[in-house]
From TrEMBL:
<feature type="region of interest" description="Disordered">
    <location>
        <begin position="998"/>
        <end position="1021"/>
    </location>
</feature>
<comment type="similarity">
    <text>Belongs to the adaptor complexes large subunit family.</text>
</comment>
<dbReference type="InterPro" id="IPR008152">
    <property type="entry name" value="Clathrin_a/b/g-adaptin_app_Ig"/>
</dbReference>
<comment type="function">
    <text>Subunit of the adaptor protein complex 2 (AP-2). Adaptor protein complexes function in protein transport via transport vesicles in different membrane traffic pathways. Adaptor protein complexes are vesicle coat components and appear to be involved in cargo selection and vesicle formation. AP-2 is involved in clathrin-dependent endocytosis in which cargo proteins are incorporated into vesicles surrounded by clathrin (clathrin-coated vesicles, CCVs) which are destined for fusion with the early endosome. The complex binds polyphosphoinositides.</text>
</comment>
<dbReference type="GO" id="GO:0006886">
    <property type="term" value="P:intracellular protein transport"/>
</dbReference>
<feature type="binding site">
    <location>
        <position position="49"/>
    </location>
    <ligand>
        <name>a 1,2-diacyl-sn-glycero-3-phospho-(1D-myo-inositol-3,4,5-trisphosphate)</name>
    </ligand>
</feature>
<keyword id="KW-0653">Protein transport</keyword>
<dbReference type="InterPro" id="IPR002553">
    <property type="entry name" value="Clathrin/coatomer_adapt-like_N"/>
</dbReference>
<dbReference type="GO" id="GO:0035615">
    <property type="term" value="F:clathrin adaptor activity"/>
</dbReference>
<dbReference type="InterPro" id="IPR003164">
    <property type="entry name" value="Clathrin_a-adaptin_app_sub_C"/>
</dbReference>
<dbReference type="InterPro" id="IPR009028">
    <property type="entry name" value="Coatomer/calthrin_app_sub_C"/>
</dbReference>
<feature type="binding site">
    <location>
        <begin position="53"/>
        <end position="57"/>
    </location>
    <ligand>
        <name>a 1,2-diacyl-sn-glycero-3-phospho-(1D-myo-inositol-3,4,5-trisphosphate)</name>
    </ligand>
</feature>
<feature type="domain" description="Clathrin adaptor alpha/beta/gamma-adaptin appendage Ig-like subdomain">
    <location>
        <begin position="761"/>
        <end position="870"/>
    </location>
</feature>
<dbReference type="GO" id="GO:0072583">
    <property type="term" value="P:clathrin-dependent endocytosis"/>
</dbReference>
<keyword id="KW-0472">Membrane</keyword>
<dbReference type="Pfam" id="PF02883">
    <property type="entry name" value="Alpha_adaptinC2"/>
</dbReference>
<keyword id="KW-0168">Coated pit</keyword>
Length: 1030
């Protein structure tokens, strides 16, 4: 852009560059913004030159990072200028300052359309660039036909048609309906015959987007793509400007191959043969050279060709050639090429009949485990895990165990899990499996999950021949001076059950076994002590009649822990002490554990669930597997006769990664220690819930009830039991609620039912209700709160007769909350409901909220929604009554800031004192009547719970003026400065703006609070407001 001749702009830029610090820069920017605002108020006196100069200055200020909240109309008005310099400024500044939802853009649509349909190619390019950068539904609906005409017009220059293709691509991503599939298949075929490579490359980008959405309508374009690849591979009619380091248009080659991967197969034999000839030429003609740029381009084409070969299930000879080529790449010095070679070789494992060929490169792959680059080490580990079978399992597992001693801490957990899974799947004998797992625990105990040693216990328990060997190995590891606590657990368990099988071996008498285990007791944590107490009881049982000395030692330990503060340790000590006095009857009471029922390994299940497909979605066939979860799926249960009633549902437990060995105890926040809890049936008032699969429960019985009824035809709003939200449809305001956000490049076409902000505000007051709903899915919440802990259950309901796929739920937590969400299944069955527990721990006071990032795909609709979770400040408050004798000493002890803060709040919505008291009670602030002698004042008290503050008393005093209900004086006091400030701001937000859409059933209506900023805090002067923001 030419800025010569604008002396004022050049001087301003020089002044900014000469500023010594940020404060000087801000003052200079504020001065300039004030000057521009003053000149724009007298717009009639501005010349086109001056308006252009000031708009350039606004753009420069915006580029520096300052907010520019005025002058937008002046920038838009320049678009309609007849001269190029003014029009250029208008287009550039408008596309930079405004987004697709800005109201001023509607004023420019007609002007932009006139420039597009006009004959001035320069103006056409400016208009297309604006539309392509901003996009938006309004632009798509109004301008898409004109953009399509430009693209297929033979009279337009290639420069304009290139921009038209990319502009139409942006509009299609925003609104796929702008392209008529029936009419565009033939037009797309004509565009793929284009001789100009610039237009062809842009058209191919549009074609990739079209076939990714619906490939069925574009079969006629497939031969055209193959001909394009033939033309590029043979370097026919390729201009020099499109040749990159001797490679004909590598970008077009990559896009064309990617487009072909969206077609399931190629039926025509001639087309298929021509394509494989091109691919063969690419495979044979690619090699590693010294020029980095040429390497990057050639390998981009090569790896896309490999993906296409795998997609088309080529002949074994070509597959072998691909593997040989990749084997050469994983041995080069360039790390990027090694990484891509390992990644693509991992993809090749999914192709049949090539695994034996990949095994030839096993030594080189193992060498990659020692690469300095951790990303290469991860890919090598994935490849070794995928290529392992019975023939090479021993070698690979031994290599992994050796590597474990020197591996990065970031990889050890994944490495341990995969080594354990391989040892279990391909063990030649069970003793070797026990050796491997014990070595694993010994070398990387901190990174070995409980599932691994639980699985060893299951194998040993179910195989009698293995029990003496496992007990002997456990005894040998206990001889080491320092072992990991996990090794103490597994060794104690095995010796407690099977040490009597070693009684005749030297050093294995009951007294010696007890002594060596008891040496480890002072070094273990409280979670391990219950296992050791069980081991002592077992040793006592196996030594009947017991040695008096041994018996007295064990009884002394039981007596010691009978007064332990830990409930489980105390209970075990008391019960074992009582049982040990039964004498010979102890043999029956503490008999050996029975065999575990045969079931799928939780480790293998975990590996299948978390196995990531690193290939492009279009490059490899989808794996038909459903990600499991420790969620609960509610499905329809049909009775033997007749139509099932609406309320009859059944709970189907999906096995989780640890569901075989873990379950929650009855209490909501109890530790997960009892691994044999059986799941109970749950009965609700609105229907019977029966357990289909007796797996261990993943949540307390009080939370397993059906919160949301998933009945009725698709698209009908399902209301909550309290009718919190009306069924009015429509998109929610983006400023009041977190609206639907696009996933990747696909725009949402599904709108929510009801107001998302109202639903969130309702859940801030209540503990159950609907958080989000659209025609396909309903998300409900049921919560329980106890001191600084919370447990939420997310109810994900599929309202349709087809499954919801690609389901993902991520929690974006604020820093003051610790959140743990159970895994969400990848697929929600038709008319089913998934329950996902979410654990919440409040670390410190804050008003920030957590966000649920939820996405799914239904048919061609991909929906992504970000929702605020109602884990807000008031959920961690506990109302507490305070008498005058307790209140005034506490109030006086908190003398002033920062423990006691006072503020005059203006802009309060007028309400009676009773309404304000009801509002405070709804947010768990207990109003204490009679404490303040002034009848127009309120005094409230509550207790706030968090890990940092524990139980902290909070006191609030509100002084109102009956003559002016729009303002009040509020004083908040507590023993923590941060808590005082956050609670004051929280209460102020509720008082300033109070939604009235929701009225809880009470004699006095309780207005619902919604956080906003006080109007009194915002100046009416835009300059002062901008200065405040900066």
């Amino acid at each position: 852009m030419a800025l010569s001749g604008m002396r004022g702009l050049s001087v301003f830029i020089s002044d900014i560059r000469n500023c010594q610090n940020k404060e000087q820069e801000r003052l200079r920017v504020d001065k300039e913004l004030g000057n521009i605002r003053t000149r724009f108020k007298n717009e009639k006196g501005l010349t086109p030159y001056e308006k252009k100069k000031y708009v350039w200055k606004m753009l420069y200020i915006y580029m520096l990072g300052y907010d520019v909240d005025f002058g937008h109309m002046e920038a838009v008005s320049l678009i309609s200028a007849p001269k190029y310099p003014e029009k250029q400024v208008g287009y550039i500044v408008t596309s930079s300052l405004l987004n697709e939802n800005h109201d001023f853009l509607r004023l420019a649509i007609n002007t932009v359309r006139n420039d597009i349909v006009g004959r001035n190619e320069t103006f056409q390019c400016l208009a297309l660039t604006l539309v392509g950068n901003i996009g938006g539904r309004d632009f798509a609906e109004s301008l898409a036909p004109d953009v399509q005409k430009l693209l297929i017009s033979s009279s337009c220059r290639p420069l304009v048609r290139k921009k038209a293709a990319l502009c139409l691509l942006r509009l299609f991503r925003k609104n796929p309906d702008v392209v008529n599939v029936d009419g565009w298949s033939d037009r797309m075929a004509q565009l793929l015959d284009e001789r100009d490579l610039g237009v062809l490359t842009s058209s191919m980008s549009l074609f990739v987007a079209l076939v990714s959405n619906n490939h069925e309508s574009y079969w006629s374009c497939l031969p055209k793509c193959v001909k394009t690849l033939e033309r590029l591979a043979r370097n026919q009619d390729i201009p020099q400007e499109y040749t990159y380091y001797g490679i004909p248009s590598p970008w077009l080659q990559v896009k064309t191959m990617r487009a072909l991967q969206y077609f399931p197969t190629i039926e025509d034999p001639n087309t298929r043969r021509s394509l494989f000839e091109v691919l063969q030429r690419v495979l044979m003609g690619t090699d590693v050279v010294k020029n980095v740029n040429k390497n990057n381009a050639s390998h981009a084409v090569l790896f896309e060709a490999l993906a296409l070969v795998m997609h088309l299930d080529a002949e074994k000879e070509m597959m072998s050639q691909c593997v040989a080529l990749l084997g050469k790449f994983i041995a080069v010095r360039e790390p990027n090429i090694r990484y891509l070679g390992l990644e693509n070789m991992t993809r090749m494992l999914m192709v049949t009949d090539v695994q034996d060929i990949i095994k030839r490169h096993q030594a080189q792959i193992i060498t990659s485990l020692k690469d300095p680059d951790i990303s290469i080490r991860r890919r090598a580990l994935d490849l070794l895990y995928g290529m392992c079978d019975v023939s090479n399992a021993k070698d690979i597992v031994e290599e992994l165990l050796q590597y474990l001693a020197t591996a990065d801490f970031a990889m050890r957990e994944e490495l341990s899990l995969k080594a354990a899974i391989l040892a279990e799947k391909f063990a030649p004998d069970l003793s070797w499996y026990v050796d491997v797992i014990l070595q694993l625990i010994d070398k990387a105990g901190d990174f070995v999950s409980d599932d691994i040693w639980f699985r060893v216990v299951q194998f040993v328990t179910n195989n009698e021949d293995l029990q003496p060997y496992a007990a002997l190995k456990a005894r040998e590891y206990l001889d080491k001076p320092a072992i990991h606590e996990t090794m103490v657990k597994v060794s104690a368990y095995l010796l407690g059950e099977y040490s009597h099988l070693l009684a005749r071996r030297p050093g294995c008498s009951p007294k010696e076994i007890f002594s060596i285990i008891h040496e480890k007791l002072p070094t273990v944590s409280t979670s391990t002590i219950p296992i050791l107490l069980s081991t002592y009881a077992k040793i006592l049982m196996h030594s009947q009649p017991p040695e008096p000395e041994l018996q007295n030692q064990i009884w002394a330990i039981f007596s010691k822990y009978e007064s332990c503060i830990d409930a489980e340790i105390q209970q075990r000590a008391v019960e074992y002490f009582a049982l040990s006095r039964k004498g010979a009857a102890l043999m029956d009471i503490l008999a050996e554990m029975p065999k575990f029922p045969e079931r799928q390994s939780s480790l293998i299940k975990k590996a299948e669930d978390t196995e990531a497909d690193t290939a492009e979605q279009s490059a490899i066939k989808f794996r038909a597997q459903q990600q499991s979860s420790n969620a609960l799926v509610v499905t329809d249960q049909s009775p033997a006769n007749g139509t099932p009633p609406v309320s009859q549902l059944s709970l189907v437990k999906i096995p989780s990664m640890s569901s075989e060995v873990r379950s929650l105890s009855a209490g909501l926040f109890a530790s997960c220690k009892d691994h044999n809890t059986s799941e109970q049936g749950v009965t609700q008032a609105n229907g019977t819930l029966s357990v289909v699969d007796p797996q261990p429960s993943s949540s307390s019985p009080g939370l397993l009830g059906d919160l949301l009824a998933i009945e009725g035809p698709p698209g009908v709003a399902v209301q909550s039991e309290h009718n919190l939200v009306s069924g009015s449809e429509g998109a929610s305001d983006a400023e009041d609620a977190l609206a639907l956000a696009p996933v990747g490049e696909q725009a949402n076409t599904v709108q929510p039912i009801g107001d998302i902000a109202e639903r969130f505000n309702a859940l801030c007051l209540k503990d159950s209700g609907v958080l989000y709903e659209d025609p396909y899915v309903q998300i409900g919440i049921k919560a329980e709160w106890r001191v600084h802990h919370g447990r939420l259950v997310l109810f994900l309901g599929n309202k349709n007769t087809a499954p919801l796929v690609s389901v993902q739920a991520l929690i974006l937590p604020p820093t003051h909350l610790r959140l743990e969400l159970s895994l969400v299944p990848d697929t929600i069955p038709p008319r089913a409901q998934v329950q996902c527990p979410l654990e919440v721990v409040n670390l410190r006071p804050s008003r920030d909220v957590a966000v649920l990032d939820f996405s799914y795909r239904f048919g061609t609709n991909v929906v992504n929604v970000k929702l605020r979770l109602p884990a807000v400040l008031n959920k961690f408050l506990q109302p507490i009554p305070v008498s005058a004798e307790e209140f005034f000493p506490q109030w006086r002890s908190l003398s002033g800031p920062p423990l006691k803060l006072q503020e005059v709040v203006r802009g309060v919505r007028p309400m009676s004192l009773m309404e304000m008291a009801s509002l405070f009670n709804s947010f768990r602030l207990m109003v204490c009547p009679g404490l303040d002698p002034n009848a127009n004042n309120l005094v409230a008290s509550t207790t706030f719970y968090s890990e940092s503050t524990r139980a902290m008393l909070c006191l609030v005093r509100v002084e109102t003026d009956p003559a002016d209900r729009s303002q009040l004086r509020m004083t908040v006091a507590s023993g923590d400065p941060t808590l005082t400030f956050e609670l004051k701001e929280f209460i102020k937000e509720q008082l300033v703006s109070i939604p009235t859409a929701l009225q809880p059933p009470a004699p006095v209506p309780t207005p619902q609070a919604q956080p906003t900023t006080s109007p009194a805090a915002v100046s009416s002067d835009p300059g002062a407001m901008l200065a405040g923001l900066l």
